[in-house]
Design goal:
disordered N terminus, two-stranded parallel ribbon, 11 helices, mainly alpha
Length: about 350
């Protein structure tokens, strides 16, 4: 097969920066990102107008090594979170915060592992790299906003932690917890704060990688506009059988070995064909739609719970700490809805890439 430059130079993407750039070259603290404003919809035009593909092979190898080092760093951070959680007193509300952070870290690490595997298996064909670069840039754009959302949620968790810490310090003064309990909680806060610093470095690296991917100096000013909302109108118009034929045709144009099973709607997934992978992308859209609806329904319920708590608080029937907890649950669920929207948007885009370019990018 001639195809697949890098199933998404998410390579040159997903973090040509962390180890490759951040670890090697420093940039002034005055580094500005606000000059070049890029929206998701104009990425393809930017790639066509700015790239020289001749240097991409070396960048790909560098990015792959950087990606692996980033995975190691996330594994270490996840272990730190687990250690901090183990030191908390039994029944501590803060354990849930740390547990949620571990889930976020694990999810991101799984995504990086998937990208690393795709890159390792890719055969670089520079003269046919344009579509792969376009998809890589779009995938990086999505990953950037996903990281930004996770950073904001981590900051929110830290704010809640600080509000709860005041209550624990009061409990310590009253002899309800030990000095060691309080010390462990403060250590847990340091872990969260360190995670924020790490996340900020990854976001900076990702912006630099995006610059590099579209042929700019990595430190040039850059602003990535908000991610579009999921195109549900597009989903409603999907005709899978027709799309499968077009996607297979585009894949074959790259030199792929795709074939359409005899029964387009119910073929055997074990065939390992392009058609089977395309089917999974189609089903993934439905799955992400269901998850978004579930999170939206939960948000509606949490909103009602918050409003009820607010009324009790205004009447003096609820403590300040309980009100903080109610706000935390509402904010956390709002963040889950946004994450679900991003996941649905990504699923729709992956289907489009397979259809329009004949490229499976996951």
């Amino acid at each position: 097969m001639k195809k697949r430059l890098v199933s998404i130079l998410l390579a040159a993407v997903l973090l040509c920066g962390p180890a490759g750039l951040i670890g090697g070259t420093t940039v002034s603290a005055k580094e500005s990102w606000e000059s070049r404003v890029i929206s998701y919809d104009n990425i393809e035009e930017i790639v066509d107008g700015s790239l020289d593909f001749s240097s991409q092979a070396a960048a790909l190898n560098q990015a792959l090594q950087a990606l692996k080092q980033t995975q190691q760093g996330l594994n270490q951070f996840s272990q730190q979170l687990a250690n901090a959680q183990a030191q908390l007193p039994e029944g501590s509300e803060l354990a849930g915060v740390l547990s949620g952070m571990q889930l976020v870290t694990g999810s991101l690490n799984s995504q990086l592992a998937s990208n690393s595997n795709s890159m390792s298996q890719s055969s670089v064909q520079i003269d046919q790299a344009r579509d792969q670069i376009v998809i890589g840039a779009k995938n990086l754009f999505i990953a950037y906003h996903s990281l930004e959302d996770q950073k904001q949620e981590l900051q929110r968790s830290l704010d809640v932690f600080d509000k709860n810490m005041a209550a624990y310090e009061k409990q310590y003064e009253l002899g309800m917890i030990t000095a060691l309990d309080l010390e462990n909680m403060k250590a847990s806060r340091n872990t969260i704060n360190s995670g924020l610093d790490t996340m900020e470095m990854e976001i900076t690296a990702l912006r630099r990688s995006f610059n590099t991917l579209i042929g700019r100096n990595y430190s040039q000013a850059l602003t990535l506009k908000s991610l579009p909302r999921p195109d549900t109108d597009y989903v409603d118009k999907i005709k899978f059988s027709d799309d499968l034929e077009d996607a297979v045709s585009n894949n074959s144009a790259w030199g792929g070995s795709a074939s359409i099973p005899s029964n387009n709607e119910n073929f055997d997934e074990n065939k390992g064909s392009f058609g089977a992978s395309f089917r999974k992308l189609y089903e993934n859209i439905g799955d992400k739609q269901r998850l978004l609806e579930k999170e939206q329904n939960t948000l509606a319920l949490e909103t009602k719970n918050y409003e009820a708590s607010k009324r009790k608080f205004d009447l003096g029937m609820l403590s300040q700490l309980a009100m903080v907890s109610a706000q935390d649950k509402l904010d956390a669920q709002t963040a889950k809805v946004k994450t679900a929207e991003t996941n649905l948007f990504s699923a729709i885009e992956q289907y489009k890439w397979a259809l329009d370019f004949g490229i499976i990018a996951s």
